[in-house]
Amino acid sequence: MPEIYREVKVGYGSVSKYIKGVKILPKYQGIWLSKRNGSKARKERLQENANRKAKEQLTSLNTREKLVFLTALYWGEGGKTDFNFTNSDPEMIKVFVSGLKEILGIEQKDIRASIRIYEDLDKNICLNHWSKITNIPVDEFVNVDVLKGKKTGKLQYGLCRIRIKRGGNVLKYLLALNKRIAELFSKSPNSSTDRTRVS
Question: How do residues 69-125 score in pLDDT, each as one tens digit?
């Protein structure tokens, strides 16, 4: 596809549309497969390089850095009128719950979880999945909201919502941190050494 794209100067969508269902002649199969394998190897090398740079750049996180990251997570995925955090990404939910306990001092017993799934998903499988992620027993999940429709493949385990008891003060604190971060970003950087090169 990239070769066709470069040759005919049209969008990837158009290329995909016209090559759909077109079979590659047997004599070109070997060439095609070698290019596919080469592309896969190149992607793997780029990913390994990205992983290496990430480990070099972030060797550890201090408490303030974790607080900023937790705040950014809530800014993007949290409620603005009441405290709740919802997402389908298990790593994000795990990091958020960990941050609530480690950084904000929220006790495990004060964390509440519920899930939202579609009718084609298995309720028990989804509950067990999020129970392992949040470390909250299945029988302590406060609600399972079943929506009409089928989302298998896109939302394999549905969405998990995290709340806390008496979350009003935590909400105010996180929103204040959001505002402060926005203020700091609006200022000019102190020096070019603060910047991290991606390439």
Answer: 999 999 999 999 999 999 999 999 999 999 999 999 999 999 999 999 998 899 999
CA–CA gap between residue 108 and residue 100 (Å, rounded): 9
Q: Is 146 helix (H, G, I), strand (E, B) or coil?
A: strand
Dist CA 193 CA 40 (whole Å) = 35
Residue 147 scores a pLDDT above 90:
no
Over the stretch 131-140, which tens digit does the pLDDT of each residue have? 999 999 999 9
* Cα 12 versus chain centre, distance: 26
**What's the token pair of residue 12?**
């990837």
At a CB cut-off of 8 Å and minimum separation 6, what does 75 contact? 174, 178, 181
- Pairwise CA distance, residues 77 & 164, whole Å: 15
Supply the angle between the helices 90-102 and 123-134 in degrees, to the nearest 10: 40
Relative to beta strand 111-118, strand 85-87 is unpaired
**3-state SS, one letter per residue, for 104-117:** CCCCHHHEEEEEEE
Measuring CA to CA, which residue among 106, 199, 182, 120 is closest to residue 156?
120
